[in-house]
Amino acid sequence: MKLDQNDKSILFSNTEIPDVFFTEYLSSAPGDFTKVYLYILFLSKYDKDIKINDLSKKLALPLKTIQDSFKYWEDAGVLVKKHSGYVLADLQEVELHKLYSPKVSSSPEDLKKNAKNQYRAKAIDNINNQFFQGIMSPSWYSDIDLWFKKYGFDEQVMLALFNYCYDRSALHRNYIQVVADSWYKNNIKSFSDLDAYYEKQEKVSNIKKTVIKKLSLNRNLTAYENAYVEKWHVDYGYNIDVIEKALKRTTSKSNISFDYLDKVISDWHDRNLKSPADVDTFLATMKQKSKDIKTLEKQTNYNNNIKRNYDNLDSLYTN
Predict the structure, then answer these.
(1) Which residues, 6 or more positions from 280, have their beta carbon under 8 angstroms from its beta carbon?
(2) For residue range 37-96, what is the model confidence (pLDDT) as tens digits?
(3) pLDDT of 206-250, one tens digit each?
């Protein structure tokens, strides 16, 4: 005898979502991918067999989005591919495995006890309260501990790191890791290092704005143009007063080329010109040389004309 499920039962049933989904996955997952996860979580309760094409129609999402979603959750360890299809992993079990694997072995309590000093423990508490409303997942404690060890940041820099990512609505591990790598490559360890880095970045930003204004560009600089400006300021040490002298040399050109600007400025750098005065002296010298060459050419042409006239007269007399 087959017992059919009461149609009213679904009205009173619930789909449970582990809290760890909200603390570990929600912030970094794209919205459509989250939509797919929630629906297959719902379907998994009823042991339903559904095809990807059907999911696409049911959720009103492109087929590629469904496929990308499955790939995303599979890479995250949330979906496990089997011969017969997919199985949803137990998120609590996944996070427990991460927490107690050799890579991350500290519990939140152990981490606080073993912190180098009270400032670090306080910094971790501040991160928990300020950015996670006091319910930070245990795995975050271990990640923060690893970042302290890997990058050598002091407590203020670690707080600034989380604040930076939070302000950009990107408080997830991958983005934090990218920013941390960038700061580390710029030799940031202490808050004074970070302050100097911000000051340098602000100078570069102001120079870029001035370049855009002086060249009357009705757009932002491309990634390649940004790289040129950063090279001129950061690598060559040139401020806008030197760079502007190169910009003025484009006034006679219809098509502004950053390749041309880079060749000019790189040439000045290769000649060890460091200040606007050095550039002015060099340009004046080159201008004078150009005048001398033209004068010499005129003199040469004049002498050649006299010689030709003399030769013509000789020819006349010989006839």
Answers:
(1) 245
(2) 888 888 877 776 777 788 888 888 888 988 888 888 888 777 877 777 777 777 776 666
(3) 999 999 998 888 889 998 999 999 999 988 999 999 999 998 887
Contacts of 85 (CB under 8 A, 6+ apart): 49
170: containing domain: 105-189
In one letter, which amino acid is 155?
Answer: E
Q: Say how many domains are in the chain.
A: 2
Say how far apart CA 20 and CA 23 lie, in whole Å: 5
User: How far apart are alpha carbons 183 and 189 in whole angstroms?
Assistant: 8
Q: Does 118 share its domain with 49?
A: no
Let me know if residue 270 belongs to a domain.
no
The answer to whether residue 123 is domain-embedded is: yes
Long-range contacts of range 20-24, CB-CB < 8 Å, 24 or more positions apart?
Answer: 20/91, 20/92, 20/95, 20/137, 21/91, 23/132, 23/135, 23/136, 23/137, 23/140, 24/91, 24/95, 24/137, 24/139
Map 13-31 to HEC letters: CCCCCCHHHHHHCCCCCCH
Task: Tell me which of 45, 73, 95 is where a domain ends.
Answer: 95
Query: What Rg, from alpha-carbon coordinates, does the chain have?
Result: 34
CB 136 within 8 A of CB 127: yes
- pTM of the predicted model, to two decimals? 0.52
Are the C-beta atoms of residues 115 and 124 closer than 8 Å to each other? yes
Task: Check: CB of residue 148 under 8 Å from CB of residue 184.
Answer: no
Residue 60 DSSP one-character state: T
> Where a domain ends, among 69, 95, 121?
95
Domain annotation covers residue 242: no
